[in-house]
Amino acid sequence: MLKYPKTQALMQRGCDFLGAEYAILCGAMSWVSERNLVSAISNAGGFGVIACGAMTPELLDREIAGTKELTSKPFGVNLITMHPQLFDLIEVCGKHGVGHVVLAGGIPPKGSVEAIKGHGAKVVVFAPTLALAKKLLRSGGDALVIEGMEAGGHIGPVSTSVLAQEMLPELSEEFLVFVAGGIGRGELIAGYLEMGAVGVQLGTRFACATESIAHPDFKKAFFRANARDAVASVQLDPRLPVIPVRALKNKGTEEFTAKQREVGLLLDQGSIDMGEAQLRIEHFWAGALKRAVIDGDVENGSLMAGQSVGMVTREEPVAEIIASLMAESEAALGRR
Ligand SMILES: Cc1cc2nc3c(=O)[nH]c(=O)nc-3n(C[C@H](O)[C@H](O)[C@H](O)COP(=O)(O)O)c2cc1C
Fold first, then answer.
1. How many C-beta neighbours within 10 Å does residue 239 have?
2. pLDDT for 324-336, tens place per residue?
3. Ligand 1: residues whose CB is within 6 Å?
4. Mutate to test the pocket of ligand 1, among 24, 26, 30 (most ligand atoms within 8 A of CB)
């Protein structure tokens, strides 16, 4: 007997694809999604994903090996497409027989999808538009994650609800689509499953789980925050591109605004050239997520969080979070 039959029936294709009991992915979160959280998610029936981020191939090798010691269940690895050693990282995943590689951060470079598939692994891609989604799925992507701007971390400009309406009716029959961004409760999971999603991906809701190694002060900042505190970074000067990131407001986000003004002024005065100006903006947040997650510097670090942070009010074991999401979804479907 299935514990959540209506929800699990709608998740069936996603569960088969992931090899997990529930088609709930914990999205890769740099510094947070390491062996402890990833194994806890997979052990609880979800699907954990290691965030490779800027790790070297050696570090990723160790992280995968460490994760395998903590779980015998499937888990994935998230690789950033612009990583200079992307192909070496793919080899590391292949060596360990990682079953699912998620390619994030842009269009996969030529040959990367083929290299992953050459190891027998499945490729999960992100796409911000329907046209790109179709292109990636027709050129080797095995599943798609659509992620709206409610999410924590790097974001696009469109909300999850709009992306879901644009993409799911078009894609869900032929392809496997997971929905991410702003999901805090199971009722919403039920809704996206009914629209054709085969599963969901959450980050913010899992970042402060008991098993997460995030610093206690990072977790406290999440527990205190409301939805409106998780704001997208703002670009002040059209000449100085800022990649939008959603994070909790703090001293660092205020100083970033001041930094943009200062650099813009230096550019006006001709004291620095465009290349130098853009570099200064780019470098502002270097190492900032680690400062927040690992060192607990919640004033100057980057507290990446989605709008669902308002629903994160206490530390809970991963298994309890997954159980409540599934129960809420099941109850919602039962009321239909
Ligand atoms: C602290 C934090 C760090 C993140 N780091 C990454 C990352 O390194 N790579 C990535 O693809 N997504 C990253 N994300 C996005 C998550 O994987 C996930 O897609 C997102 O959190 C889902 O939306 P939600 O926050 O509304 O649940 C991060 C999110 C958070 C909150």
1. 14
2. 999 999 999 999 9
3. 27-30, 32, 51, 53, 78, 104, 147, 150-153, 180-183, 201-205, 207, 304-306, 308
4. 30
Joined together, the tokens standing for residue 283 give 């470098």
List the helix and strand counts (H, then E) for the chain. Answer: 14, 11
The full DSSP string for 172-226 is TTTS-EEEESS--SHHHHHHHHHTT-SEEEESHHHHTSTT----HHHHHHHHH--
Residue 8 has pLDDT above 90, yes or no: yes
Q: Whose CA is nearest to atom 13 of ligand 1?
A: 29
Could you give the domains of the chain?
5-213+311-335 (3.20.20.70), 216-307 (no CATH)
The best mutation among 79, 204, 213, 229 to test binding of ligand 1, ranked by most ligand atoms within 8 Å of the C-beta, falls on 204
Alpha carbon separation from 24 to 139, 318, 321 (Å, rounded): 25, 12, 11
Q: How confident is the model at residue 1 (pLDDT cuts 50, 70, 90)?
A: confident
- The answer on pLDDT for 121 being more than 90 is yes
| Residue type at position 74 | P
Nearest CA to ligand 1 atom 6: 29
Distant-in-sequence contacts of 120-125, Cβ < 8 A, 24+ apart: 121/93, 121/94, 122/17, 124/76, 124/100, 124/178
302-318, pLDDT tens digit by residue? 999 999 999 999 999 99
Query: Per residue in 212-239, pLDDT tens?
Result: 999 999 999 999 999 999 999 999 999 9
Task: Name the residue at shortest CA distance from atom 16 of ligand 1.
Answer: 27
282 Cβ contact list (under 8 Å, min separation 6): none
295 vs 177: CA distance, rounded Å: 36
Q: Residue 69 pLDDT > 90, yes or no?
A: yes
CA pair distance 169, 130, nearest whole angstrom = 11
